Backbone:
């Protein structure tokens, strides 16, 4: 229950996650226990605290940590992990924790969490009205085409408008990698990954939108990257690296970078 793997379906078909063994069951209720040792007890790489602002906090989420839980548990999702382990681990005040926005499981970097329902609503409103600036770092194989720098990539995603802008590219001839700084004007699912793959530059370690995605091939791109390790890909080389917004409490502009 503590790890979020027990659910109750009432006779009115309302399904909810049970946290404590205090619920009185009624005739017709159904209890579901999703028990999998590999999920419940596998080690979780710790998120790192960036800043604690009281009503909200900013964390560096590792690649592999979920943004949201599943029916099999939610203790390894960022908000629940912070509530159960992260605050205590960093000697911070224990508080309820609410997810405000999401990062793909494979994406690492800055994520913003609220510690009250009121603050969660305020921060969610900032995201909804695009009043939060987000930037990411992505690494691709080869030298990125200069023609795409600061030119909006606007391919629709799932039928919805989406805009991605590559602000800069730094090429390292020794590794043959380019490190991109990317800005999002919209927040569609897998937006950066899809847009970069669409123009022929999939992110290194992207198992979903690699060189075969939509028939595009990145010049010289080796989906396995490391010679001699043909069966092992690196983690997705995409990181949320910058977040900026006006604090709803103080009306002061906040900036967070990694």
Residues:
């Amino acid at each position: 229950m503590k790890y979020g793997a027990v659910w109750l379906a009432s006779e009115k078909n309302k399904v909810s996650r049970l946290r404590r063994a205090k619920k009185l069951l009624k005739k017709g209720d159904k209890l579901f226990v999703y028990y999998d040792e590999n999920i419940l007890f596998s080690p979780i790489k710790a998120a790192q605290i960036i800043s604690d602002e009281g009503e909200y906090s900013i964390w560096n989420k590792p690649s592999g940590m979920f943004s949201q839980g599943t029916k099999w548990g939610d203790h390894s999702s960022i908000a629940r992990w912070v509530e159960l382990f992260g605050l205590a681990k960093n000697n911070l005040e224990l508080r309820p924790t609410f997810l405000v926005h999401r990062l793909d499981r494979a994406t690492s970097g800055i994520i913003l969490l609220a510690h009250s329902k009121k603050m969660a609503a305020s921060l969610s409103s900032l995201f909804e009205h695009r009043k939060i600036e987000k930037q990411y770092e992505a690494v691709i194989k080869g030298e990125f085409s200069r023609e795409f720098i600061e030119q909006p990539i606007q391919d629709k995603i799932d039928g919805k408008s989406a805009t991605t802008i590559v602000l800069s590219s730094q090429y390292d001839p020794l590794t043959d990698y380019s490190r991109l700084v990317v800005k999002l004007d919209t927040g569609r699912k897998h937006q950066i990954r899809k847009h970069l793959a669409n123009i022929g530059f999939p992110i290194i370690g992207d198992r979903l939108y690699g060189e075969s995605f939509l028939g595009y091939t990145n010049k010289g791109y080796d989906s396995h990257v490391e010679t001699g390790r043909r069966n092992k890909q690196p983690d997705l080389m995409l990181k949320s690296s910058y977040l900026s917004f006006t604090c709803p409490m103080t009306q002061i502009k906040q900036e967070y970078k990694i």
